Predict the structure of Protein phosphatase 1 regulatory subunit 7.
Amino acid sequence: YLYDNRISRIEGLHTLLNLEVLWLQENSIKEVEGLENCKKIRALALSGNLIESVCGRLDSQTALEDLDLSANKIGSFRDIPYLDKLQSLRSISFANPHFGQNPVCHLCNYQTYTVYHLRRITKLDTMMITDEQRHLAEATFVKKKMYYNMRIKTLKRNTTNLLKEGLLFKQTKASEIGLQLTALLKSAKILERELHYLERVEKANTLAQLTAVKIPLGAINSQVETKLSEIKAVDELYEDMRSVVQSSSIHHISRFMVELQTGGNIRLEDGKSTDMWHKSCVDLVKSRFYASDFEKFGVKDIKVIKVTRIHNRFLRNRFED
């Protein structure tokens, strides 16, 4: 029992191989460490400390059954799935009436998210988990997963369709230019044969006759170069479009996954020019731009292409506190 001892770091316990109960409440601990050799701990109390994350820090505690992390600074759902690795864990507390809560407890869907991801626990925040609560948590989370999976599949389908349309446009345009290029090359071959013939026959080798062939041949060769440049431009346009579409798809899928993994507590919203907050952001950015500072770089003005608002409930709760 080492509670309320102003301990700032867990250390010196590596020889206690048979330690089963460890109370470290109301200290100043910031990191969960130094317990790698204590693999028989069944009950670990770390409430009332300064811990912000336990990701991967308790993986060695295979015998741990009861974990109290209440009244710390854990504010993200990302810690919760890591605790599912603790096969023996049956009771966990992020909130305790005697010590207080973690910021994570104030997030939307906190209980649903925790009960769904930690399926072996029977007690959460000192309260028994009923079968009804477990079924409700599973049903709610499955619905959310289905919703986001549907949106991701729709996005992928739309991306595929856009790429198909782009490829069809590229092939059609390239085919049109190819036909024109073929006709030009045929005409060029005819003129080249005629020029070759004139150069071999001395009597016909007059300046006027040669010029009459060379001028149109030069014009055709110039058109051939133009058509080859057009084919290259079409290829580059398609590749640019493909890159933009795929990047946009990956970006939006990442946004959906962030929303799902945070239980909807982090959302990204693209603004419209009609939104007051969009206009305020644009005005703010432009008011901070001074052309004289960028004159040497050749930058005379800026244009705001897109404004995205991030809804982060955890940060908002911290700000309000």
